[in-house]
């Protein structure tokens, strides 16, 4: 399973999440404590937004995060009001730059932790359901990139909650009795808000936490400081939108069903 971290708020050096905390994302790349795999060394990536540019900057590489000598310098020099960072542990797809997160399209960026159950069996059906416009954007072989393209095809840019619902419903329709569960934690941004959600068809969602800090909000797979107050688990099956110092739940049909 991968590890991820994101920020929205006042401009902040990326190193404040990725490098310097005691349990930073860089530390989690070698010593994750709330994942099946402690080591996440199959590449990494960061996406960030500049106030004068709608599309995010993107840097991804196949090296383990701890072995890229450029990463500390980049994270020290880049300041952003919104950024996403990810360290990857592959669930089967090869290690290549095109398979590293975050993925981006126009003003959207997206990263994922988890896996689509029985992906090899359902992959062709899911890809065939993509409109040509989005199928032609596919560069890698991961379930994560395909998940992002499915969300875009369902109108992510107009109604994120409806897009999430439509994709989750499609995934569940392809599950067979007794097959592996879909386990999904995703964080994405349109350059204005952060959106995050946890979902699992067997209720075993990958971890995700949210913390309001000075100047903004942090979202991370694991708390970045041991014993630090204020970390709250992101509730499952609700799409959370964070912007302008506030958060709200965009209750999806999946969330409504879970609540019932």
Describe the structure.
This protein has eight helices and 13 strands. Helix content is 25%, strand content 32%. A hairpin with a 2-residue loop joins strand 2 (44-50) and strand 3. The chain has 260 residues and is of the alpha+beta class. The strands form two sheets. Strands 3-2-4-1-10-9-11 form a seven-stranded antiparallel β-sheet. Helix 6 (143-153) packs across helix 7 (160-174). The longest helix is centred in the middle third of the chain and has 15 residues, at 160-174.
Cα end-to-end separation: 29 Å
Query: Which radius of gyration do the C-alpha atoms yield?
Result: 17 Å
Specify the structural class: alpha+beta
Tell me the strand percentage band.
Answer: 25-35%
Number of strands: 13
Query: What integer is the average pLDDT?
Result: 91
The shape is globular
Low-confidence parts, pLDDT < 50 over ≥5 residues?
A: none
| Biggest sheet architecture | 7 strands, antiparallel
Strand order in space, largest sheet = 3-2-4-1-10-9-11
Helical proportion?
25-40%
Order of helices and strands: EHHEEHEEEHHHHEEEEEEEH
Count of helical regions: 8
């Amino acid at each position: 399973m991968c590890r991820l971290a994101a920020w929205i708020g006042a401009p902040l050096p990326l190193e404040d999440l990725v490098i310097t905390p005691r349990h930073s994302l860089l530390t989690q790349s070698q010593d994750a404590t709330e994942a099946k795999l402690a080591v996440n060394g199959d590449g990494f990536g960061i996406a960030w937004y500049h106030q004068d540019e709608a599309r995010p900057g993107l840097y991804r590489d196949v090296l383990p995060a701890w072995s890229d000598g450029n990463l500390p310098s980049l994270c020290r020099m880049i300041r952003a009001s919104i950024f996403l960072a990810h360290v990857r542990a592959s669930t089967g797809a090869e290690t290549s730059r095109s398979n590293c997160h975050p993925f981006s399209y126009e003003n959207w960026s997206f990263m994922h932790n988890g896996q689509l159950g029985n992906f090899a069996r359902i992959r062709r059906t899911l890809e065939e359901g993509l409109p040509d416009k989005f199928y032609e954007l596919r560069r890698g072989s991961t379930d994560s990139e395909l998940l992002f393209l499915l969300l875009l095809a369902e109108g992510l840019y107009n109604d994120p909650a409806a897009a999430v619902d439509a994709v989750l419903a499609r995934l569940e329709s392809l599950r067979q009795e007794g097959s592996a569960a879909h386990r999904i934690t995703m964080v994405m941004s349109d350059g204005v808000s952060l959106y995050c959600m946890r979902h699992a068809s067997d209720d075993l969602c990958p971890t995700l936490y949210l913390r309001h800090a000075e100047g903004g909000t942090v979202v991370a797979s694991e708390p970045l400081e041991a014993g630090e107050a204020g970390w709250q688990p992101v509730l499952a099956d609700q799409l959370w939108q964070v912007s302008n110092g506030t958060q709200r739940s965009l209750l999806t049909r999946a969330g409504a069903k879970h609540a019932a």
